[in-house]
Amino acid sequence: MNQQSAHQVNRTIHDADSHISEYDGWIEGYASEYVRANLDEPFFRVEKVPQLKPLVDQAHNRLAGNDPAMTEHLKSDIFGSEGKRNIIGAYGAVNNIERTDALDIAGINKQLVFPGLVFVSRFARSNDEKVVWGGCDAMNRAMVDFCSSDSDRLQAVGYLSLRDPVKALQEAKKAIKIGIKAFWMTSDAVDGRAPSHIAYDPIWAVLQEAGVPITLHIGSGAKLIDDYRNTGVKRELAPESMNIETTSPKDLPVLHHSIERWLACMIYDGVLERFPKLKIGLVELGSNWLPACMSNLDIGAAELGRFDLGLRKLSLKPSEYMQRQVKATPLHFEDAGWVMRNVGKDMLMFNTDYPHPEGGKDPFGAFERSLDAVQATSEELDSFYSKNFEALLGL
């Protein structure tokens, strides 16, 4: 049941990771005819995944008002496994009025709302630039529309390609104007340009001025290549594992590799020096790796960068840029308390990954146990549950 944890009492809670579940027909109404006709892969269709069809039929039946008992059941256990296993059918997964109600039930004030990964994967890496920019425009308008019913609480995350710096600047301005509150971007190098290439500086300037952060989310970087999955033996999955998520055990230990490369570029090449108010959110990428990353960045600058004149211009240690400008979401099964003790109180943010099952059945309880284990202070808890989220979004 939706019972409050001790940490929720008299405390503002913001959620730094949630999603809209993309369903058949959702994005088509926002995409141009050209985009619809020229995607590298066709739009996702449930009927092509027989295992999902009964779940989606159940969801549509409930949303049509034909199963009020199921609706009440989902509301009574927002993070319960039954609803989140069927991420289309979870309460508030596709209906924005339900989403606001879900926040009230869970005791959450504001929530970052990301798209799913389905449509982005079909346009973001296309060789056709008209598809890339048309896809960005469609995604950004769709996310703003979903969040528009409660735009103060539902913070829309859009997508921004860096394929063409000039067009990216135009899209960023347009998306910010209509209500995008954060941009999901790739952490890979694009068309031979480092993430810190000076051609992107006008984009960072616009984002800094608007208080709109960069977010890197699972899926931002290239995944583990298939060669590492080829063992000569077919991988077997339990029947209950079936959902739209595709993260595997081999992915988890390496999710952050492209993120660390991205951070090294943005810090060593002076982007965070030039744009001291530009904020970065690392979402659904774990946090156990952060202490080592910060230490390695400091060592790299101090020991291997002694003769690099660019590094000499940095006014802070690399780890200090991280503490000043980077926020991250720990996974609920990580030891968030241990991470906080090693990176400081100003980086970690509460998150649920709603309605995806990876967020766990009891995110409040999981984080409470971890933070209590290190005797987190009231100030540290406020930073984790709300202040760092507010700093990320310039609230």
From TrEMBL:
Q: Which residues form a coiled coil?
A: none
Concerning InterPro entries, the annotation shows:
ACMSD, Amidohydro-rel, Metal_Hydrolase
Which keywords are on file for this protein? Lyase
**Gene Ontology annotations of biological process type:** secondary metabolic process
Under SUPFAM superfamilies, the record lists:
Metallo-dependent hydrolases
Would you tell me the Gene Ontology cellular component terms?
cytoplasm
Q: Which residues form the Amidohydrolase-related domain?
A: 108-395
Report whether Lyase shows up as a keyword of the record. yes
One Pfam family matching this protein: Amidohydro_2
GO MF term list: carboxy-lyase activity; hydrolase activity
- For this entry, the protein name equals Amidohydrolase-related domain-containing protein
